[in-house]
Amino acid sequence: MDNKHTEISAIGEFGLIDRLTKDFPLHNDSTFKGVGDDAAVMSYGDKSVLVTTDLLLEGIHFDLRYVPLKHLGYKSAVVNFSDIYAMNGTPRQITVSLGISSRFTVEHIEELYEGIRLACDIYGVDLVGGDTSASVTGLVISITCMGDADRNEIVYRSGAKETDLICVSGDLGAAYMGLQLLERENRVAAGAKEGETFQPDFAGKEYILERQLKPEARKDIVKMLHEQGIKPTSMMDVSDGLSSELLHICKSSGVGCRIYEDKIPIDYQTAVMAEEFNLNLVMAAMNGGEDYELLFTVPLTDHEKIEKLKGVSMIGYVTKPELGAAMVTRDGSEIPVKAQGWNAFTQDK
Amino acid sequence: MDNKHTEISAIGEFGLIDRLTKDFPLHNDSTFKGVGDDAAVMSYGDKSVLVTTDLLLEGIHFDLRYVPLKHLGYKSAVVNFSDIYAMNGTPRQITVSLGISSRFTVEHIEELYEGIRLACDIYGVDLVGGDTSASVTGLVISITCMGDADRNEIVYRSGAKETDLICVSGDLGAAYMGLQLLERENRVAAGAKEGETFQPDFAGKEYILERQLKPEARKDIVKMLHEQGIKPTSMMDVSDGLSSELLHICKSSGVGCRIYEDKIPIDYQTAVMAEEFNLNLVMAAMNGGEDYELLFTVPLTDHEKIEKLKGVSMIGYVTKPELGAAMVTRDGSEIPVKAQGWNAFTQDK
Fold it and tell me: Percent of chain B scored above 90 by pLDDT?
């Protein structure tokens, strides 16, 4: 090793992944699609196998002071399923590896697994393996999910075409506001006097809390699109934030985009909380992340079909690449879309 | 959660896995074999897909004071390939997830990936995905490997039959002795006076060091068995130690076994180091672990074929279950085989 030292924060997570994976030649015919999308695709016979993996670390991705273990297990599984749905596939199997520090008992880990089991039951996914080890530090959760799809049904990030409509399911920013609320209540609880019983004030905020603690993968949207005969030209799930994902699709597809500020779907509770916290609502929706909604593009000719779908919003359109990615604000001006999504390699969000 | 607290060390890693995974019903026809072997098996068309995963944590599975990052990368990949070979399959793809603490630079991680890349090149495996994140503590490496096999060629742990011969590839205990050597030299180096250049004394010990730092998966053995028309009745790789693996096969197959102390293959360097460290050589070979050799059983009728194979030792035979698992010592007495293999949930080895 020479003496060059590039801080990881200088190139970011995606820069690091690009750099690490660029020189891996593919050896097998069965490897149909490797690094660079939500899941890898392998081809075995008539069905393609999809695989995706997520690593969740205590103190980085979750804080056990306010996340119940069962919810954590549920969410850890569901975020992987979401990646398979984002390929237009069906999740089938997961492996779960855990690194467990000495403060956890068997019952703690069973609670975590209860959540994983519940997610598996609801989504019809099989646990097929894993690895369990002690950890000298915090809890480590690594989940790999495999799924399948007919090869010509798989939707990549790279298929968006000029004039395509940009759509997103559900609403955005709620999980982020839920996290703000949990962190505030945790600070208040920590400041409560000894003997004083602290009752967190969550009334009327159930939706944003559930979006943070127990998100769902949009199996229903994938099913609905299929039933309506709509095949997206590109798709991915919103985990790092809409801005970040839009830029991924633009980069992979070699296109630009325009999205409209007033079209971004936001729930009432999210708006109320943003007001209470004095946070910019649109920025929270664009960059908050952890929404696990589906962002996808469809040909302009599907406009009427999409318009009729419940729970899907058209937020903009795909442009020539030289126009870049921008948001059209309510007053008609354009501001560039920048990835300010959650980045595990920087201290501040 | 109720107030019951079972320490994980009380039931051990396998007890914990049994307990956690016993209530996971399988939902999909494509899930042919889930938890309970070296890899899971999924069925898609004519080929079965194999998947296995390993979680490696700094301070538990490796110590960066004496393990070069490139070697660590190589080994992390190879131990997964070994699990696929142990199913009589061919590794095809891996995903690599990393949790990286702030003391690592991009170049460090590239060094780790150099080792992974080398392993992928040598074994013809494709890197197809992963996840990279900051870690507030040490380095976390989670690798999932997928492979394939014709369904009727897959070898499980559960097929051993009474009178079958028990065979093992290569030799045992060397990786464990290599670790002892590295740990000693590290202690000596730590005690060296400031300014004093410390030169570790590794001459004549290259083999045991390589067995610890850069183990290989026995692709060659799987190929050779195939060429000779030998299909093992059961097989697994020796990662936790021969004793532990023998008990796995006995339990899964519902059989007992007898192995002969004087048949256990041990390299000359391993024996010399055991002498130098005043360690019981046979115990090191039985319980040291990290050998990544293949332990397998074949029908008695394959005796002549096996005898001709280079690098394979017959070490005993399969018995009725009521006879239990025992080692026949040089003086003809029998001692029970006990799993004293490496256990990440206990402090002492």
Answer: 58
